[in-house]
Amino acid sequence: MELGIAQQEGTDPFWYCEIDPLDALFLGSAWPGKFHDEFEFANARDAWLRLLQGTVHGQGIRTFVHEVVATSRELGLPVDDGQLMLAVADRLEAAGLDRRRLPLRLLPGQALEEHRAVRGPAPDLRFPEPPEDAQERVERFWQRSPEDSWEETPLAVLRSGLHRLQDAGLPVEQESCMLLSALYRALLAKPGEPLESLPEHAMAWAFSLDETSTLLPVVDLLAIAPIQGLSTDEVLGRLFAIPAFTETIPSAALLWTSSPGLALPRLAFELGVSEVSTLAAELTPDMLDWVGMHTRMRLNVAAHEGANEAENTADDESAEDLAVRRAAVRSTVLDKIRKKSDGAASSQREPDRPVERIWNADGSSLVRIPTDTAQGQEMRKAVEGQRKAFQEKFGREPGPDDPLFFDPDADEPTPITREYFDNVLLEMADHAAEKGLDPAPLHAWREVGYVVTAETRGMFTTAEVLAFNRAVARYQQDEQ
User: Fold this and answer.
1) DSSP 288-325
2) pLDDT tier at 307 (50, 70, 90 boundaries)?
3) Taking every pair of C-alpha atoms in the chain, what is the biggest distance, in angstroms?
4) CB–CB of 50/211 below 8 Å?
5) CA gap 138, 141 in Å, rounded
6) Distance of CA 167 to CAs 155, 182, 236, 261, Å?
7) Which of 18, 42, 400, 456 is the most buried (most CB within 10 A)?
8) How far apart are CA 438 and CA 451, in angstroms?
9) In the chain, where are the structural domains located?
10) Distance of CA 84 to CAs 25, 71, 76, 272, 375, Å?
11) Where does the pLDDT of residue 191 fall: very low under 50, low under 70, confident under 90, or very high at 90 and above?
C-alpha cells in the first residue's frame, strides 16, 4: 500500500527502487510509519526480523522468502523485479501466509518504538571509568603506527582509521566526533566513498549491529561520547576499560547490511539457497559483502546527485528527537570534513602497493598493476598467454566484448562460470599438499570469492581481509 500511494503521489524516496519483496513486506507492516532514510529503514527491517526469530511469525518469514525465490526461478525474474512482486501474491495466498496476522506488539511501529536500531544508544548512556594505566595506554596508542602489528581488534582498526583521516588533514586528536567515522573508514569503507559520507555510513553501520554483539559497548561509546563532551583521549581511556576493544571483531560486524535489498538474499542463503537472482547480479553466498558495498555506494551517488533526494518526512516528536540525536554528532563531523575535503573521495593511495584497486564513487573500480614491477611483468605475460590461447581456440583476436578468461570447452567465447572456477580451485586444493602447498587458502578463496596476498592486500578493506584470514584459519584447523 505504501509503495502504491508514494508512487501515485510522487513522494517515493529514491531508495524505493532498490527494495525487494521482503522490504515491501516490512514497509507494509510499518505503514503508516515513515523512515528518515534508507539506513533507518534497513536497520529497522533487520531489527524487526530478529524480533520475529523463534516465533511462528519468524517461520512465516522464512516461508515467504522461500516462495519468493521459488517464484523468481520459475518465472526467470530477479527477486527485486516489480513484476515478481505482483506474481508472488498468488503463491503467498496458496501458502496460507495471508491468514496469519501479526499481533500489535510485533508490528514495527510498536515493537521498534524505542529500539536501538532506530533510536540509537541513549544520549545519557553511562560507560566504565578508565583503568588506572589509561594515560600510558593512550600514549602508546598514538605512538604506534598501523604497520607495527596486524590485529583483528577494534583497537588496531581504529588506530589505522585515525591515521588515515589524519593523513587527509582532519583533526582526529582534537575531535572525538571523528572516532566512529575512523573505525568505519578502516573497517568497511571503500576508498571511493566521499569523506562527507563517512559520518552517516558509520552511524548506520553502528546502529545495525545485533543487540547481542560484543562490539556494541565500543561503537555506542564512540557514537555518544561527543554528545557527552568527552575528548578524544578521554574516549580512548574509557575504551581500554571495555574488553571488546582489545578482542577479536565479531564476524557479523564485517558485513554492511544497512541498505534495502540485502536481507532477502541473506535469509535465502541461510535457508540453503545457492543462488539468488537480482537486478544487479546473480548472487551467491560469497557475494554478500560485494552487493552490500555496491548498494551502499550506488545509493550514495544517487543521493548526492540530487535525484529524488530523501528528505525527512516524519513530523512527529519521536522523529524530531531522533534527528536531533543524530545531528548532534553528524553535523560537527561534516563541518570538519567539508573544510578539509570539499566533498572529495577518501581515496588516499596506499604507499608502495604493487597491486592497487582504484575505486570510483559508485562502487566501480579498476585494478592498477605497474608494469615495471615483478608482479606487473608476470601479469603482462599471463594476459599475453590468454590472448594467444584465445587466438588458437577461436581463430581470431579477442574483441572488446569477449571474455579474456574463457570456458575452454565452449565452442563460442563464453565467460568462465562460477561452478567451473570453483571446480578448478577444488582440484588445485586436492593436489596442493602433493606440491608442498597449504590447501587452506584455496578453500578460503572458494568460500569468500577472492584471495588476499601480501601483494593484493591494498585492494581490500580490513573487513574483507579479516573474512579471508578467518576462513583460512578455519580450514587449517579442520585439516589438523
Assistant:
1) HHHHHHHHHHHHHHHHHTTTT-------SHHHHHHHHH
2) very low
3) 74
4) yes
5) 5
6) 18, 12, 20, 35
7) 42
8) 14
9) 356-479
10) 13, 7, 9, 21, 46
11) confident
* Grid cell listed for 126: 553511562
CA–CA separation, 264 vs 240, rounded Å? 37
Task: Give the cell for residue 197.
Answer: 559520507
Are 67 and 92 spatial neighbours (Cβ–Cβ below 8 Å)? yes
C-alpha span between 95 and 79 (Å, rounded)? 18
269 pLDDT more than 90? yes
Return the closest-CA partner of residue 362 out of 262, 280, 448.
280
Q: Find all residues with CB under 8 Å of 62, minimum gap 6, and list them.
A: 267, 271
pLDDT tens sequence across 84-94: 988 887 777 77
Long-range contacts of the stretch 224-231 (C-beta < 8 A, 24+): 224/121, 224/122, 224/123, 224/125, 225/127, 225/176, 225/179, 226/175, 226/176, 226/177, 226/328, 226/329, 226/332, 227/123, 227/325, 227/328, 227/329, 228/123, 228/124, 230/176, 231/174, 231/176
Alpha-carbon gap, residue 87 to 67, rounded angstroms: 11
What pTM was estimated for this model as a whole?
A: 0.83
Query: Where does residue 448 fall: left (phi above 0), alpha (psi -120 to 50 degrees), or beta otherwise?
Result: alpha
Dig out the grid coordinates for 58 from the structure.
Answer: 519468524
Q: Are 449 and 286 in contact (CB under 8 A)?
A: yes
Distance from the first to the final alpha carbon of the chain: 56
DSSP string, 368-388: E--TTSHHHHHHHHHHHHHHH
How far is the CA of 470 from the CAs of 12, 25, 135, 455, in angstroms? 41, 35, 33, 19
Q: Is 179 exposed, middle or buried (0-12, 13-18, 19+ CB in 10 A)?
A: buried
Omega before 108 cis (within 30°)?
Answer: no
**pLDDT tens, residue by residue, 45-64:** 999 999 999 999 999 999 99
State the CB neighbour count (10 A cutoff) for residue 237: 21
- Dist CA 45 CA 42 (whole Å): 5
- Local structure of residue 12 (DSSP, 8 states): -
And the C-alpha cell for 351?
Answer: 604507499
Rounded distance, CA 342 to CA 335, Å? 10
